[in-house]
Amino acid sequence: MSLAIVHSRAQVGVLAPAVTVEAHLANGLPTLTLVGLPEATVKESKDRVRSAILNSSLEFPARRITLNLAPADLPKDGGRFDLAIALGILAANGQIPIMALHDVECLGELALSGAIRPVQGVLPAALAARDAGRALVVPKENAEEACMASGLTVFAVEHLLELVGHFNAQEPLSPYRANGLILQSRPYPDLSEVQGQIAAKRALLVAAAGAHNLLFSGPPGTGKTLLASRLPGLLPPLDEREALEVAAIQSVASPVPLNSWPQRPFRHPHHSASGAALVGGGSRPQPGEITLAHHGVLFLDELPEFERRVLEVLREPLESGEIVIARARDKIRFPARFQLVAAMNPCPCGYLGDPNGRCRCSSEQVQRYRNKLSGPLLDRIDLHLTVAREATALAPTARSDDNSANAAAHVAAARTLQQQRQGCANAFLDLPGLRTHCPLSTADERWLESACERLTLSLRSAHRLLKVARTLADLEQAKHISRAHLAEALQYRPATQ
């Protein structure tokens, strides 16, 4: 039979749709035609595959070869289909049995010598192959990554001849054995290294316990960046599902060592970053900083220095937890469930309100500086805190209980309570969940409504305030929200948005 079918996977965002490589040999002048909407890199695979087969001492058929990458309306790019194309040609020519390819998917780029080179985006393909009930053949460099999909049979190969011997039952390959997904911890900077700033540490604890967005405002040198860098060390470790999601994003974005993947991401883009760098994009859409911060922290230092149009693109992801990048031919959806932590100065010079009177900014300059941040964006930040300058002490003595380990234990207890009660962190509660899990007494409800009216808070701000109060109650393991929790939550909201 001169028709062979090989299974492979494309890469579209963080998804791996199935691609069927069909190879047909017919009589006629020796040619090789590749169809199925291939991009330039896929078209070049014809020459790579021909040289790899010949240099592996295998026969390249001198016949009319037609290769179809189905479905035809799905764009294909990269060298990930080289191995599947080569196997399809060899199977159609009778050099390997066609039936041996039925329950196997293949990924890999071929060198001219027949060696198999690694490709990006293997983990999403591995998860999809496992769900389809097939084994996966990958380059040896990608084997550890593919084995993160537990329950998947993985074959790791270095050369095309290894696969020919395996499929012909001459030298069968053993499934690759790895440790699978191991959650490895790397020490984060400790909270005890922050001098003073009791109120800021409390806000950091609340933000970690409920996954709330946080904004620090204060003069230079007060520890805003120092505090933000301690947040990942307070968050609970990733569970297996979250770790796989983070790993899949890193697999698509860039080759990152496996030992860094199970960590909660901490992204710190410079304020000169463009909108595409922040949310993703390009002719072949790639994930941006907000997707790379999925299940982690996105820290924006010097927040007003970002272009306003760049900051405005954060509004929808902060609400929905995802970003949709639309192109003429397709829409690609990237996950973006991140925790925003931002820092800013109170004025252009940074010393507004300093007791020494160092600020020389006019009221117009201050207003222009603050107008760089829109009300709708600030409305989506749950905790606003002014960080004051502490007294100078070159050798401060920290309290023995003022460290990340103790704070993380409180956060873990609060998060466990939230998972048992509603299945998510408080910051992600929807309106029905808010009504169910954040009930108030009649007196407290009227008191809160009156306070929101006096502070001219929007309805969104009131809902976020209620979520913060729920987190404060969870930190105390309290079943109901009290007036004290509402009062403390109000302190984290500015009077005007």
From TrEMBL:
The entry's keywords: ATP-binding, Nucleotide-binding
InterPro entries the UniProt entry points to: AAA+_ATPase, CHLI-like, MCM_dom, Mg_chelat-rel, Mg_chelat-rel_C, Mg_chelatse_chII-like_cat_dom, P-loop_NTPase, Ribosomal_Su5_D2-typ_SF
Pfam families: ChlI, Mg_chelatase, Mg_chelatase_C
Annotated ranges, domain AAA+ ATPase: 210-391
The UniProt record lists the keyword NADP: no
GO molecular function: ATP binding; DNA binding
Family designation: Belongs to the Mg-chelatase subunits D/I family. ComM subfamily.
Xref: NCBIfam families: PRK09862.1 (NF007365), YifB family Mg chelatase-like AAA ATPase (TIGR00368)
Record's protein name: YifB family Mg chelatase-like AAA ATPase
Upper lineage: Bacteria, Pseudomonadati, Pseudomonadota, Gammaproteobacteria, Pseudomonadales
